[in-house]
Amino acid sequence: MSKKMFALRAGAVMVAAMVSTMAAQAGEVEVLHYWTSGGEAKAAKALQATLQAKGHSWKDFAVAGGGGDSATTVLKSRVVSGNAPAAAQIKGPSIQEWAQEGVLADISDVAAANNWDKLLPPVVANVMKYKGKYVAVPVNVHRVNWLWANPEAFKKAGAKVPTNWDEFFAAADKLKAAGIIPVAHGGQNWQDFTTFESVALGVGGADFYKKALVQLDQGSLKSDTMKKVLTTFKRIKGYTDKNAPGRDWNLATAMVIRGEAGMQLMGDWAKGEFIAAGKKPGTDFVCAAAPGTAKSFTFNIDSFALFKIKNEANVKAQKDLAAAILAPEFQEVFNLNKGSIPVRLGADMSKFDDCAKLSSKDFVDTAKSGSLVPSVAHGMAVSSAAEGAIKDAVSNFWNSDKQTVEDAMAKIASAAKTK
Ligand code: BGC
Q1: DSSP string across 165-224
Q2: Ligand 1: distance of its center to the CA of 68 in Å?
Q3: Which site among 56, 93, 260, 395 is 20 to 30 Å from 180 CA-CA?
Q4: CATH H-level superfamily of 143-299+365-415
Protein backbone atom coordinates (compact mmCIF):
# COMPACT_ATOMS: atom_id res chain seq x y z
CA MET A 1 0.00 0.00 0.00
CA SER A 2 1.36 3.46 -0.91
CA LYS A 3 2.18 5.86 1.90
CA LYS A 4 -0.61 8.14 0.73
CA MET A 5 -3.20 5.35 0.69
CA PHE A 6 -2.09 4.27 4.15
CA ALA A 7 -2.52 7.79 5.52
CA LEU A 8 -5.95 8.05 3.94
CA ARG A 9 -7.03 4.70 5.38
CA ALA A 10 -5.74 5.61 8.83
CA GLY A 11 -7.58 8.91 8.62
CA ALA A 12 -10.80 7.20 7.65
CA VAL A 13 -10.48 4.73 10.51
CA MET A 14 -9.95 7.60 12.97
CA VAL A 15 -12.96 9.51 11.67
CA ALA A 16 -15.10 6.38 11.89
CA ALA A 17 -13.96 5.84 15.48
CA MET A 18 -14.75 9.46 16.38
CA VAL A 19 -18.18 9.28 14.80
CA SER A 20 -18.98 6.08 16.63
CA THR A 21 -17.97 7.50 20.06
CA MET A 22 -19.97 10.65 19.35
CA ALA A 23 -22.93 8.51 18.39
CA ALA A 24 -22.55 6.50 21.58
CA GLN A 25 -22.63 9.67 23.66
CA ALA A 26 -25.11 11.67 21.67
CA GLY A 27 -28.57 11.53 23.11
CA GLU A 28 -31.95 12.98 22.47
CA VAL A 29 -33.85 15.29 24.78
CA GLU A 30 -37.56 15.62 24.36
CA VAL A 31 -38.60 19.02 25.68
CA LEU A 32 -42.19 19.93 26.51
CA HIS A 33 -42.77 23.69 26.40
CA TYR A 34 -45.37 26.27 25.42
CA TRP A 35 -43.16 28.88 23.81
CA THR A 36 -44.86 29.28 20.45
CA SER A 37 -45.40 33.05 19.98
CA GLY A 38 -42.87 35.16 17.98
CA GLY A 39 -40.54 36.14 20.84
CA GLU A 40 -41.03 32.86 22.70
CA ALA A 41 -40.18 30.76 19.65
CA LYS A 42 -36.92 32.68 19.15
CA ALA A 43 -35.99 32.02 22.77
CA ALA A 44 -36.90 28.32 22.43
CA LYS A 45 -34.71 28.11 19.31
CA ALA A 46 -31.77 29.41 21.35
CA LEU A 47 -32.30 26.56 23.81
CA GLN A 48 -32.47 24.03 20.98
CA ALA A 49 -29.26 25.39 19.41
CA THR A 50 -27.46 25.14 22.76
CA LEU A 51 -28.35 21.49 23.10
CA GLN A 52 -27.44 20.70 19.50
CA ALA A 53 -24.06 22.41 19.93
CA LYS A 54 -23.32 19.72 22.52
CA GLY A 55 -23.88 17.08 19.84
CA HIS A 56 -27.31 15.99 21.10
CA SER A 57 -30.62 16.13 19.35
CA TRP A 58 -33.72 18.05 20.37
CA LYS A 59 -37.17 16.54 20.11
CA ASP A 60 -39.62 19.41 20.13
CA PHE A 61 -42.79 18.90 22.14
CA ALA A 62 -44.47 22.31 21.89
CA VAL A 63 -48.03 22.66 23.12
CA ALA A 64 -49.45 26.07 22.21
CA GLY A 65 -51.39 27.98 24.83
CA GLY A 66 -50.21 30.97 26.86
CA GLY A 67 -49.61 30.39 30.55
CA GLY A 68 -49.14 26.66 29.88
CA ASP A 69 -52.54 25.24 30.90
CA SER A 70 -52.81 23.03 27.80
CA ALA A 71 -49.18 21.92 28.13
CA THR A 72 -49.82 20.78 31.71
CA THR A 73 -52.83 18.73 30.66
CA VAL A 74 -50.83 16.99 27.92
CA LEU A 75 -47.90 16.41 30.28
CA LYS A 76 -50.14 14.70 32.84
CA SER A 77 -51.42 12.20 30.30
CA ARG A 78 -47.89 11.45 29.04
CA VAL A 79 -46.54 10.85 32.55
CA VAL A 80 -49.53 8.72 33.56
CA SER A 81 -48.95 6.51 30.52
CA GLY A 82 -45.31 6.04 31.59
CA ASN A 83 -43.91 8.07 28.72
CA ALA A 84 -42.58 11.26 30.29
CA PRO A 85 -40.52 13.70 28.21
CA ALA A 86 -36.95 14.29 29.44
CA ALA A 87 -37.65 17.91 30.35
CA ALA A 88 -40.83 19.90 30.84
CA GLN A 89 -41.59 23.52 31.53
CA ILE A 90 -42.90 23.31 35.09
CA LYS A 91 -42.53 25.94 37.76
CA GLY A 92 -43.16 27.04 41.32
CA PRO A 93 -44.97 24.79 43.80
CA SER A 94 -45.91 22.43 40.94
CA ILE A 95 -42.29 21.25 40.91
CA GLN A 96 -42.83 19.91 44.42
CA GLU A 97 -46.13 18.32 43.40
CA TRP A 98 -44.46 16.44 40.54
CA ALA A 99 -41.50 15.46 42.71
CA GLN A 100 -43.85 13.96 45.29
CA GLU A 101 -45.12 11.63 42.56
CA GLY A 102 -41.57 10.23 42.35
CA VAL A 103 -41.22 10.95 38.63
CA LEU A 104 -38.48 13.61 38.68
CA ALA A 105 -34.76 12.92 38.30
CA ASP A 106 -32.17 14.01 40.84
CA ILE A 107 -29.69 16.31 39.07
CA SER A 108 -27.75 17.36 42.16
CA ASP A 109 -24.51 16.13 40.55
CA VAL A 110 -24.92 18.69 37.74
CA ALA A 111 -25.80 21.38 40.28
CA ALA A 112 -22.76 20.61 42.44
CA ALA A 113 -20.37 20.48 39.49
CA ASN A 114 -21.62 23.87 38.30
CA ASN A 115 -21.98 25.59 41.67
CA TRP A 116 -25.70 26.30 41.40
CA ASP A 117 -26.02 26.95 45.13
CA LYS A 118 -23.64 29.89 44.73
CA LEU A 119 -24.92 31.32 41.48
CA LEU A 120 -28.66 31.21 42.20
CA PRO A 121 -30.55 33.43 44.66
CA PRO A 122 -31.73 31.14 47.52
CA VAL A 123 -35.39 32.11 46.89
CA VAL A 124 -34.99 30.53 43.44
CA ALA A 125 -32.76 27.56 44.37
CA ASN A 126 -35.19 26.36 47.06
CA VAL A 127 -38.02 26.04 44.57
CA MET A 128 -35.82 23.89 42.29
CA LYS A 129 -35.07 21.39 45.05
CA TYR A 130 -37.12 18.59 46.51
CA LYS A 131 -35.91 17.25 49.85
CA GLY A 132 -32.62 19.07 49.30
CA LYS A 133 -31.98 17.61 45.82
CA TYR A 134 -32.19 19.60 42.61
CA VAL A 135 -34.95 18.29 40.33
CA ALA A 136 -35.35 21.37 38.11
CA VAL A 137 -33.28 24.13 36.56
CA PRO A 138 -34.39 27.78 36.30
CA VAL A 139 -34.11 29.67 33.02
CA ASN A 140 -34.98 33.28 33.75
CA VAL A 141 -36.82 35.83 35.88
CA HIS A 142 -39.91 37.39 34.38
CA ARG A 143 -41.52 40.43 35.97
CA VAL A 144 -45.29 40.27 35.77
CA ASN A 145 -46.34 43.74 37.01
CA TRP A 146 -45.68 45.70 33.83
CA LEU A 147 -47.74 48.02 31.67
CA TRP A 148 -46.83 48.22 27.96
CA ALA A 149 -47.81 51.35 26.09
CA ASN A 150 -47.73 52.66 22.54
CA PRO A 151 -46.30 56.21 22.74
CA GLU A 152 -47.78 57.22 19.36
CA ALA A 153 -51.27 56.28 20.53
CA PHE A 154 -50.75 58.14 23.79
CA LYS A 155 -49.55 61.22 21.92
CA LYS A 156 -52.53 61.14 19.61
CA ALA A 157 -54.85 60.94 22.61
CA GLY A 158 -52.97 63.60 24.59
CA ALA A 159 -52.60 61.06 27.40
CA LYS A 160 -49.76 60.39 29.83
CA VAL A 161 -48.44 56.94 30.76
CA PRO A 162 -50.06 56.29 34.16
CA THR A 163 -48.25 55.69 37.43
CA ASN A 164 -51.35 55.04 39.58
CA TRP A 165 -54.88 53.80 39.00
CA ASP A 166 -56.50 57.24 38.87
CA GLU A 167 -54.08 58.21 36.11
CA PHE A 168 -54.73 54.88 34.43
CA PHE A 169 -58.47 55.56 34.08
CA ALA A 170 -57.81 59.19 33.04
CA ALA A 171 -55.50 57.94 30.26
CA ALA A 172 -57.99 55.23 29.30
CA ASP A 173 -60.74 57.86 28.88
CA LYS A 174 -58.53 59.95 26.62
CA LEU A 175 -57.53 56.96 24.49
CA LYS A 176 -61.18 56.00 24.16
CA ALA A 177 -62.12 59.54 23.11
CA ALA A 178 -59.41 59.38 20.44
CA GLY A 179 -60.95 56.21 19.01
CA ILE A 180 -58.20 53.91 20.32
CA ILE A 181 -58.98 50.75 22.30
CA PRO A 182 -57.59 51.74 25.71
CA VAL A 183 -56.66 48.28 27.02
CA ALA A 184 -55.64 45.28 24.90
CA HIS A 185 -56.85 42.22 26.76
CA GLY A 186 -57.20 38.53 26.13
CA GLY A 187 -60.06 36.99 28.08
CA GLN A 188 -58.49 33.75 29.30
CA ASN A 189 -58.41 33.07 32.99
CA TRP A 190 -54.63 33.38 33.40
CA GLN A 191 -54.72 36.73 31.59
CA ASP A 192 -57.63 37.95 33.72
CA PHE A 193 -55.62 37.01 36.79
CA THR A 194 -52.45 38.66 35.47
CA THR A 195 -54.43 41.91 35.45
CA PHE A 196 -56.11 41.13 38.77
CA GLU A 197 -52.87 40.52 40.66
CA SER A 198 -51.34 43.77 39.36
CA VAL A 199 -54.43 45.62 40.57
CA ALA A 200 -54.20 43.86 43.96
CA LEU A 201 -50.55 44.88 44.25
CA GLY A 202 -51.14 48.45 43.08
CA VAL A 203 -54.25 49.10 45.16
CA GLY A 204 -53.45 47.02 48.25
CA GLY A 205 -49.63 47.09 48.37
CA ALA A 206 -47.16 44.23 48.84
CA ASP A 207 -48.23 43.29 52.38
CA PHE A 208 -51.88 43.00 51.39
CA TYR A 209 -50.87 41.01 48.31
CA LYS A 210 -48.87 38.54 50.40
CA LYS A 211 -51.58 38.09 53.03
CA ALA A 212 -54.49 37.81 50.63
CA LEU A 213 -53.03 36.05 47.62
CA VAL A 214 -50.05 34.09 48.94
CA GLN A 215 -51.10 33.16 52.48
CA LEU A 216 -54.75 33.11 51.36
CA ASP A 217 -55.74 34.74 54.64
CA GLN A 218 -59.54 34.75 54.87
CA GLY A 219 -59.72 38.10 56.68
CA SER A 220 -57.72 39.85 53.93
CA LEU A 221 -59.71 38.16 51.20
CA LYS A 222 -62.89 39.56 52.74
CA SER A 223 -61.55 43.01 53.58
CA ASP A 224 -62.42 46.53 52.41
CA THR A 225 -59.13 46.58 50.54
CA MET A 226 -60.22 43.50 48.59
CA LYS A 227 -63.48 45.32 47.78
CA LYS A 228 -61.49 48.22 46.36
CA VAL A 229 -59.29 45.82 44.38
CA LEU A 230 -62.28 44.05 42.84
CA THR A 231 -64.03 47.32 42.00
CA THR A 232 -60.92 48.70 40.29
CA PHE A 233 -60.32 45.41 38.44
CA LYS A 234 -63.86 45.27 37.07
CA ARG A 235 -63.71 48.90 35.99
CA ILE A 236 -60.88 48.00 33.58
CA LYS A 237 -63.20 45.71 31.65
CA GLY A 238 -65.11 48.71 30.33
CA TYR A 239 -61.95 49.78 28.49
CA THR A 240 -61.37 46.49 26.66
CA ASP A 241 -62.92 45.64 23.28
CA LYS A 242 -65.74 43.20 22.59
CA ASN A 243 -63.39 40.71 20.91
CA ALA A 244 -61.29 40.24 24.04
CA PRO A 245 -62.87 36.94 25.21
CA GLY A 246 -60.59 34.04 24.33
CA ARG A 247 -57.97 36.19 22.58
CA ASP A 248 -54.35 35.01 22.92
CA TRP A 249 -52.05 37.33 24.85
CA ASN A 250 -49.67 37.86 21.94
CA LEU A 251 -52.53 39.00 19.71
CA ALA A 252 -53.37 41.55 22.39
CA THR A 253 -49.72 42.67 22.37
CA ALA A 254 -49.89 42.95 18.58
CA MET A 255 -52.78 45.43 18.98
CA VAL A 256 -50.50 47.67 21.06
CA ILE A 257 -47.65 47.19 18.57
CA ARG A 258 -49.95 48.39 15.75
CA GLY A 259 -51.32 51.27 17.82
CA GLU A 260 -54.84 49.90 17.57
CA ALA A 261 -54.79 49.68 21.38
CA GLY A 262 -53.02 51.99 23.80
CA MET A 263 -51.78 49.68 26.54
CA GLN A 264 -51.59 46.14 27.91
CA LEU A 265 -51.06 44.83 31.43
CA MET A 266 -48.80 41.81 30.90
CA GLY A 267 -45.52 40.26 32.04
CA ASP A 268 -42.33 40.99 30.14
CA TRP A 269 -42.69 38.08 27.73
CA ALA A 270 -44.73 40.80 25.95
CA LYS A 271 -41.44 42.63 25.42
CA GLY A 272 -40.25 39.58 23.49
CA GLU A 273 -43.08 40.25 21.02
CA PHE A 274 -42.19 43.93 20.59
CA ILE A 275 -38.53 42.99 20.03
CA ALA A 276 -39.38 40.17 17.60
CA ALA A 277 -41.44 42.73 15.66
CA GLY A 278 -38.33 44.94 15.37
CA LYS A 279 -39.60 47.56 17.83
CA LYS A 280 -37.28 49.62 20.05
CA PRO A 281 -37.96 50.14 23.76
CA GLY A 282 -38.36 53.78 24.75
CA THR A 283 -39.10 54.81 21.16
CA ASP A 284 -41.65 52.43 19.66
CA PHE A 285 -42.99 51.15 22.96
CA VAL A 286 -42.79 52.07 26.61
CA CYS A 287 -42.48 49.78 29.61
CA ALA A 288 -43.72 51.09 32.95
CA ALA A 289 -44.51 49.36 36.23
CA ALA A 290 -48.22 48.52 36.46
CA PRO A 291 -49.98 51.47 38.16
CA GLY A 292 -49.01 51.85 41.81
CA THR A 293 -46.49 48.99 41.74
CA ALA A 294 -43.17 50.72 40.95
CA LYS A 295 -41.71 49.71 44.30
CA SER A 296 -42.81 46.08 44.09
CA PHE A 297 -41.94 43.15 41.86
CA THR A 298 -44.16 40.18 41.01
CA PHE A 299 -41.80 37.42 39.93
CA ASN A 300 -42.38 34.52 37.58
CA ILE A 301 -39.49 32.13 37.09
CA ASP A 302 -39.53 29.74 34.16
CA SER A 303 -37.86 26.44 34.83
CA PHE A 304 -37.51 22.95 33.44
CA ALA A 305 -38.15 19.93 35.60
CA LEU A 306 -36.19 16.85 34.56
CA PHE A 307 -38.00 13.53 34.44
CA LYS A 308 -36.59 10.11 35.23
CA ILE A 309 -35.68 8.48 31.93
CA LYS A 310 -33.85 5.22 31.18
CA ASN A 311 -31.58 5.45 28.13
CA GLU A 312 -28.04 6.30 29.30
CA ALA A 313 -27.18 8.56 26.36
CA ASN A 314 -30.42 10.46 26.83
CA VAL A 315 -29.70 10.93 30.54
CA LYS A 316 -26.33 12.38 29.60
CA ALA A 317 -28.00 14.72 27.09
CA GLN A 318 -30.59 15.75 29.69
CA LYS A 319 -27.85 16.65 32.16
CA ASP A 320 -25.86 18.52 29.50
CA LEU A 321 -28.97 20.56 28.76
CA ALA A 322 -29.48 21.37 32.45
CA ALA A 323 -25.86 22.52 32.78
CA ALA A 324 -26.02 24.61 29.61
CA ILE A 325 -29.15 26.46 30.73
CA LEU A 326 -27.28 28.23 33.50
CA ALA A 327 -24.16 29.02 31.45
CA PRO A 328 -23.68 32.81 31.02
CA GLU A 329 -23.77 32.72 27.18
CA PHE A 330 -27.11 30.95 27.11
CA GLN A 331 -28.60 33.12 29.83
CA GLU A 332 -27.76 36.17 27.75
CA VAL A 333 -29.03 35.08 24.35
CA PHE A 334 -32.16 33.41 25.73
CA ASN A 335 -33.24 36.31 27.91
CA LEU A 336 -32.53 38.95 25.25
CA ASN A 337 -35.15 37.19 23.14
CA LYS A 338 -37.55 36.20 25.88
CA GLY A 339 -37.99 39.64 27.48
CA SER A 340 -36.91 38.34 30.88
CA ILE A 341 -33.64 38.78 32.81
CA PRO A 342 -30.95 36.20 33.63
CA VAL A 343 -31.58 34.18 36.77
CA ARG A 344 -27.84 33.93 37.57
CA LEU A 345 -26.65 36.34 40.23
CA GLY A 346 -24.31 39.08 38.98
CA ALA A 347 -25.05 38.50 35.26
CA ASP A 348 -23.58 40.97 32.76
CA MET A 349 -26.49 43.22 31.73
CA SER A 350 -24.58 45.40 29.26
CA LYS A 351 -26.39 44.06 26.19
CA PHE A 352 -29.85 44.43 27.77
CA ASP A 353 -32.27 47.34 27.30
CA ASP A 354 -33.52 49.77 29.94
CA CYS A 355 -36.64 47.73 30.74
CA ALA A 356 -34.46 44.72 31.59
CA LYS A 357 -31.97 46.84 33.52
CA LEU A 358 -34.79 48.31 35.59
CA SER A 359 -36.19 44.85 36.19
CA SER A 360 -32.80 43.57 37.29
CA LYS A 361 -32.30 46.48 39.73
CA ASP A 362 -35.84 46.21 41.10
CA PHE A 363 -35.49 42.44 41.57
CA VAL A 364 -32.55 43.01 43.91
CA ASP A 365 -34.03 46.08 45.66
CA THR A 366 -37.45 44.56 46.30
CA ALA A 367 -35.86 41.37 47.65
CA LYS A 368 -34.24 43.58 50.30
CA SER A 369 -37.31 45.72 51.03
CA GLY A 370 -39.71 42.75 51.27
CA SER A 371 -41.85 43.72 48.29
CA LEU A 372 -40.69 40.93 45.98
CA VAL A 373 -43.80 38.76 45.64
CA PRO A 374 -44.57 35.55 43.73
CA SER A 375 -47.06 35.64 40.87
CA VAL A 376 -50.22 33.66 41.48
CA ALA A 377 -51.33 33.88 37.85
CA HIS A 378 -48.06 32.24 36.79
CA GLY A 379 -47.92 29.37 39.24
CA MET A 380 -45.40 30.78 41.70
CA ALA A 381 -47.41 31.20 44.87
CA VAL A 382 -49.99 28.60 45.84
CA SER A 383 -50.87 24.96 45.16
CA SER A 384 -52.15 24.25 41.66
CA ALA A 385 -55.57 23.30 43.09
CA ALA A 386 -56.04 26.60 44.96
CA GLU A 387 -54.63 28.55 42.02
CA GLY A 388 -57.09 26.99 39.58
CA ALA A 389 -60.05 27.64 41.89
CA ILE A 390 -59.29 31.31 42.60
CA LYS A 391 -58.50 31.97 38.94
CA ASP A 392 -61.90 30.62 37.98
CA ALA A 393 -63.64 32.70 40.66
CA VAL A 394 -61.89 35.88 39.50
CA SER A 395 -62.69 35.20 35.84
CA ASN A 396 -66.34 34.46 36.65
CA PHE A 397 -66.56 37.87 38.29
CA TRP A 398 -64.84 39.54 35.31
CA ASN A 399 -67.21 37.88 32.86
CA SER A 400 -70.48 38.20 34.76
CA ASP A 401 -72.83 41.15 34.38
CA LYS A 402 -74.70 40.24 37.53
CA GLN A 403 -72.19 39.25 40.19
CA THR A 404 -71.66 41.88 42.89
CA VAL A 405 -68.30 42.66 44.48
CA GLU A 406 -69.57 41.11 47.75
CA ASP A 407 -70.56 37.90 45.96
CA ALA A 408 -67.22 37.73 44.20
CA MET A 409 -65.36 38.26 47.44
CA ALA A 410 -67.21 35.37 49.11
CA LYS A 411 -66.59 33.09 46.09
CA ILE A 412 -62.87 33.91 45.94
CA ALA A 413 -62.45 33.41 49.70
CA SER A 414 -64.14 30.04 49.49
CA ALA A 415 -62.10 29.03 46.42
CA ALA A 416 -58.95 29.86 48.37
CA LYS A 417 -59.75 26.96 50.74
CA THR A 418 -59.38 24.42 47.91
CA LYS A 419 -56.79 21.80 48.77
C1 BGC B 1 -44.53 31.88 31.20
C2 BGC B 1 -43.81 32.60 30.09
C3 BGC B 1 -44.70 32.61 28.86
C4 BGC B 1 -46.07 33.19 29.20
C5 BGC B 1 -47.02 33.19 28.03
C6 BGC B 1 -45.90 32.48 31.43
O7 BGC B 1 -46.59 31.77 32.42
O8 BGC B 1 -43.79 31.96 32.38
O9 BGC B 1 -42.60 31.96 29.79
O10 BGC B 1 -44.07 33.34 27.85
O11 BGC B 1 -46.66 32.44 30.24
O12 BGC B 1 -47.20 31.93 27.54
Answers
A1: HHHHHHHHHHHHHTT-EEE---BSHHHHHHHHHHHHHHHHHHHHHIIIIIS--HHHHTSH
A2: 7
A3: 395
A4: Periplasmic binding protein-like II (3.40.190.10)
